[in-house]
């Protein structure tokens, strides 16, 4: 509800791009947002009904609105990003993983050292990165040191001190890991040529170094210096091997950033791939915690700005899966086919893998969060009005109409609750009638739950297509539960999900967690039903065979099976052994029945 003060603020907002801030009545910052048109965007919060509970709660708390006008939406994005990080408003996307990343430093010295660091010092040194892990940095530095031996000491190698003979070469020189600049064994010009090549390598450009090494190898070979040629060839192999580990895309795709996003109810995952000279030289995925009902477009725009700032990206073009307005300084491309499309798909695959890894970690570290997220996802995927915390699944089992049974398995919070499993003997149906059997067991199950005042499930799943689903619905109608419990059917062939009154099935992504839970329920119901059915058939077969012997009753059969454990052992037993269990008269009858031909 808008107060008079808010009404006035809304009416006086400019139509320019900018950043808006919502405050509560105590002056606490609740939310920061950016807009292409401040008046239109801010007014939209108050002019429509919000389905999302968090957005609804935010709007109720707003007591004051402030805004900052900027020149473009790009400036608004940058300002919004900085303000979120500085103030961490309660209702904003949470920018996670804000740690200090490693960089590769080329020190500002006469003979520069190259080393990893997490501190950026403004002393004229060059810094490349940041990298997402120290492991990546060490791999790259090992490659560089294998190609271009560099000094590791921290001596002041000024021209005067070297000429005065102040320093002596160390063990690193004798091991071949340093070229000895401290004794003037390599000129500053040659050393800097190597540094130039190293700059290209950390930028992802291997072409110049490979060309240089090939020229050197050829020169050594022509001069019959085969050992030196072999040494250069080994460096070429190292460089080509490292380059092969980078995903080579297309040499014409150069200096491009690729972004994609996957999201669920609570989080968005933005993946970033940096391309240089046709190879992926960096990959990073950013996890964004939703606070409101942010769209993928909003989350991706936030992720792009954050990641480009964090990694100091200067690329003038980005590839994304859908159109984004990031201002005039960045060219946004939405690839439709070819290598460009494939690289966006690769980015999406990386985001999905990251999301799955997060799920697995959360399942171990914070199982409640995992369950809450899974339930919210299932509610959304299955178009339910409530989260399916309690699910029951039914399956019929019979072979040619013999011993018809049914099973009901129960999942609570996405996990089997085996103490609540139930099995049913079909009582009112004659012959192999799956539809009538399903109707009977669903009716019996929920009539009992109602009579005993037990909690009802939020979702019922029947194993089968439209016929079995209709039978389940008929049973619920008879009990007055139609519309109070959601019920769906799953058909085995294409894993279609059927809804009552809807002839068109729902198809879920084969990799979706929702479908996996439903498949697990169906498979568990099938296993439980088949086991019950087999046990019943075995029991029936054993009982029938022994009880067909004239003069042998049920108690005798039980005594025999309790002692001998199986019918085959009863058959093989001697008359004396049988007599010790059931007496000589009945032992003679059974022994004669099985051995009369002899």
TrEMBL record:
PROSITE patterns: GIY_YIG, UVRC. InterPro entries: GIY-YIG_endonuc (IPR000305), GIY-YIG_endonuc_sf (IPR035901), GIY-YIG_UvrC_Cho (IPR047296), RuvA_2-like (IPR010994), UVR_dom_sf (IPR036876), UvrABC_protein_C (IPR050066), UvrC (IPR004791), UvrC_RNase_H_dom (IPR001162). Residues 15-93 form the GIY-YIG domain. Pfam families: GIY-YIG (PF01541), HHH_5 (PF14520), UvrC_RNaseH (PF22920), UvrC_RNaseH_dom (PF08459). The UvrABC repair system catalyzes the recognition and processing of DNA lesions. UvrC both incises the 5' and 3' sides of the lesion. The N-terminal half is responsible for the 3' incision and the C-terminal half is responsible for the 5' incision. Interacts with UvrB in an incision complex. This is UvrABC system protein C.
